[in-house]
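User: Predict the structure for this protein chain, please.
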Amino acid sequence: MNTEKIILGIDPGTTIMGFGLIKVVNKKMTLLQLNELQLKKYTDPYVKLKLIFERTIELIDTHHPDEIAIEAPFFGKNVQSMLKLGRAQGVAMAAGLSRQVPVTEYSPKKIKMAITGNGNASKEQVARMLQSLLSIKELPKNLDSTDGLAAAVCHFFNSGKTQQTKSYSGWESFVKQNQDKIK
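Assistant: Here is the predicted structure, written as structure tokens:
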């Protein structure tokens, strides 16, 4: 039986949103696209969020992914950065959910562990491993796109396993899993 699936991986950000798409046929991955959305030139944070939403919708409508894997923001010392990343992630998730595409989030450490076997691997190590796994001729200058691709590959490697990550198939499942966020 021929099984085929397309996975969109997203590394959310308000300066650069990295993304990668893989196609999986009979458990073999091939690279479909590796790119980024540049947001540096925009100063209005709401315009950035709108562009993240629109680009994610465009990717979904063009490639029809079966699933979306997204990197979860990690807790850092700068609360403002964390809030901005959370908003970017939320907008990308909302785009997927609005098109009924299941979304799963992975921590940066889990993604690095899935790709390199080391949860503390550098962006460069992750990118080089993806280059080897997917026969990428030349790595991009910014590694945000390979971070997005890494989320997709991590999701593929974890498919079928019991996941300790959060996964949503639509607004209804999001609400069910987040009762504490409802007033």
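The beta strands are 4-11, 16-25, 28-38, 67-71, 103-106, 167-168.
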